[in-house]
Amino acid sequence: xxxxxxxxxxxxxxxxxxxxxxxxxxxxxxxxxxxxxxxxxxxxxxxxxxxxxxxxxxxxxxxxxxxxxxxxxxxxxxxxxxxxxxxxxxxxxxxxxxxxxxxxxxxxxxxxxxxxxxxxxxxxxxxxxxxxxxxxxxxxxxxxxxxxxxxxxxxxxxxxxxxxxxxxxxxxxxxxxxxxxxxxxxxxxxxxxxxxxxxxxxxxxxxxxxxxxxxxxxxxxxxxxxxxxxxxxxxxxxxxxxxxxxxxxxxxxxxxxxxxxxxxxxxxxxxxxxxxxxxxxxxxxxxxx
Length: 289
Fold this sequence. Notes:
Helix content: 25-40%
Number of helices: 7
Strand order of the largest sheet: 2-1-5-4-3-6-7
CATH topology of the largest domain: Glutaredoxin
CATH architecture of the largest domain: 3-Layer(aba) Sandwich
Distance between the termini: 49 Å
Mean pLDDT: 86
Number of domains: 2
């Protein structure tokens, strides 16, 4: 239990790097509430591939499992980010000899949209279409998509809460817990960095437009600075970055292209993983007509 407490405490710290005290307190309470909580699965789960072929899939007995719940609110494609899940599943499979099941429960507002997304992204993994939202009703998940993904132990109790696709620090926690080892990237020589600005507001623009934001990371340490990866809370925001190391005093550029799929106000978080002590959290925001 002590080890579990440490993991959940660390995750709070990662999530609250740029949060105000009130938000930190709310996240801490949420994590404490879910710590060790058992997830109850419906007894009549049906899994399909591409929403066309029903598969005979039973949740296997394993030391860990990953539960991904997606509700019907907002842009489903943006929240799912299936190509990134495919990458993570492949990575975990290679580290564990395919011992960790990934359980996708979707409560869609549009079945045709889900079918299109699954086929478009070539996501040939079993998914459970929970039309009646039974899983959520039995467990009362948080409304924030950041906290609708869980790493469960063999007794279906929550070990880590958080989305490893949306947050690279959470991804590291998942891998560390599953494998019992530090991720390779954590062993690299560390340095320090500063960002020219942490938030960019695009203002108001049309849904047909693509907006671009450029952030500059300056190496303020005495070792080369490397951007290892970048994740977003929305598939509409696509980050790209300089791959070469920056010498002390030099800078790296990170570009975020925003292509909204729905109208309304947005505020998306980009988490940058560098060889620094902590991840760097950036934001893009605006309003789509």
